[in-house]
Design brief:
The chain has 9 helices and 5 strands, in the order E-H-E-H-H-H-H-E-E-H-H-H-E-H. By secondary structure, it is α/β, with parallel strands linked by helices. It is 54% helix and 12% strand. The chain binds adenosine-5'-triphosphate.
């Protein structure tokens, strides 16, 4: 089993920017957002279960999950929402586990927006937090998504606080500055994680 670096940070903190840099170092990335889409791709047991439960109208003409339709169906129906979570959460967790196990790089970066909130830090050997001020998070996420400030604020309120996240971190990447400040920090961490992974497998 490889050494697993749990990477997290609030909305707009810079997780993608950081995981791209680890990928450039040749490190395999397991991304929770990617896995969440993979488990409902056409042909998966989870998508078939969703079709059996909600009917054929829940997929598009090309057979992919119609996400807006699904969101509408569960929005005001707690039972359907619970049913969907009970289906998807174990499927997502199992697929993450598989991808972590088959990774071939010396260590793996496990990128999960809600790592702390969902207790998935238990699947990681160490936790790395990408950190910036809440004002910066708000500004970057608003600009990227073209969303209004209130929408981003409500997502931030639903996530762990900056303090809660920092308390769980063994290492912190400071992303308050320019993008050019990230590669030196990632390279230094890469050296540390290479050593730690060698110790784990020894
Ligand atoms: P989410 O969880 O919302 O998907 P994330 O943590 O993956 O976000 P990114 O997508 O990496 O965050 O960064 C958010 C936005 O801010 C992106 O548009 C990114 O290009 C930009 N950004 C990230 N870091 C910096 C920086 N240091 N300076 C300027 N812009 C940045």
């Amino acid at each position: 089993k490889p050494f697993v670096v749990g990477l997290t940070g609030g909305i707009g903190s810079g997780k993608s920017a950081v995981s791209d840099l680890f990928a450039q170092q040749g490190i395999d990335i397991v991304d929770a957002d990617v896995v969440a889409r993979q488990v409902v791709e056409p042909g998966t047991p989870a998508l078939q279960a969703i079709i059996d439960h909600f009917g054929e109208a829940i997929v598009t003409d090309s057979g992919t999950l119609n996400r807006p339709a699904l969101r509408k169906r569960v929005f005001d129906n707690d039972l359907d929402k619970q049913w969907l979570n009970a289906l998807l959460h174990p499927a997502i967790r199992a697929e993450m586990q598989t991808q972590l196990e088959v990774a071939t790089s010396p260590y793996v970066v496990f990128s999960v927006p809600l790592l702390i909130e969902n207790g998935l830090d238990s699947m990681a050997d160490t936790v790395l937090v990408v950190d910036c001020s809440e004002e910066t998070q708000l500004a970057r996420a608003t600009r990227r998504d073209g969303s209004n400030i209130e929408t981003i604020k409500s997502i931030m309120a639903s996530q762990a606080s900056r303090q809660q996240r920092l308390e769980k971190a063994q290492y912190v990447i400071d992303n308050n500055g320019e993008l050019s400040a990230l590669p030196p920090q990632v390279k230094s961490l890469h050296q540390q994680y290479m050593q730690q992974s060698a110790q784990k497998s020894a």
